[in-house]
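Hey, sorry to bother you again with one of my protein questions. I've been puzzling over a protein and I'd love to understand its fold better. Take your time with it, there's no hurry, and the full record follows here:
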Amino acid sequence: MRILESRFLCEDPPWRDAHAASIAWTPDGLVAAWFAGSREGRPDVAIWLARFENGRWSEPVRGFSGRDGAGRPQPCWNPVLFRSATGWLLLFYKVGPRPRRWWGMLSVSRDEGRGWSRPRRLPDGIFGPVKNKPLELSPGVLLCGSSSEFFGWRCQIERTDDLGESWRRPIVLNHPFKRFPGGFAANQATLLDLGGGRLRALCRTKQGFIAECRSADGGWTWSRMRPTAIPHPNSAFDVERLADGRILLVHHPGTEGRGTLLASISEDGERFAPALVLEDEPGQEFSYPFLLRTPDGLVHLVYSWKRRTIRHLVLEPGR
């Protein structure tokens, strides 16, 4: 594996703090979204957008801000871009004073991200994909790795059969309290399609490892949550299936800190071998990786760079 290109989405950012980027492919070029403002959780934090065309990122645009029902400013959080097989580009994000009290929002673009619908609030208890992109089982049918923090960290799977117009009741993967069986503090599931209706959810935890659940029926039912052999701090990660079937994991090695960002590859999804160190600066933060494989087989990665801006890498997987 090697890095083909490296750039920042904004070299001289107009914000103090930027985090939680996502990226989507369209026939007209890449689109990226992230949240930024004076500091995470403050009312001025908004969703910013940029497009990659003609070999460069456009000037970032402050796309969406947050307000509550009384019109008071509220911070925005964790945008997730996803282009459906139908051609619609979806932007999920969260609004609220903090994760325990946020709610889900959805805006749709039908012109590859140039124009967006008026954002609408998702039903109570539905948040959409919280960090990583959804899995499209068939055109318009999305399975979202979501989570709630209202009663502790609760990892849930949300399903929509019509691109977010309606939602089924979430499936909870874990009990957030340790005194109960399966009591993992888990959230931010990343979903992998293993074929034949078999799915795997890899989840962030507070216990120093990545946890997993599995489904054999296309996500209708899930196994009990269990730990994997992958150590990990309390931080986000992402996975992507490569064109040759291997699985790429971008994560922090070990159980402490966000100063090292590593790309690891697995042949079977169980055992991951280090492939490339992407960042290594103890005491700094390189976090919240988001992966996207484009039709040319290359992999695009965006992540928070020292919480100051967003870095974009283009990776050639190789063998």
Remarks:
- DSSP finds no helices and 27 strands in the chain.
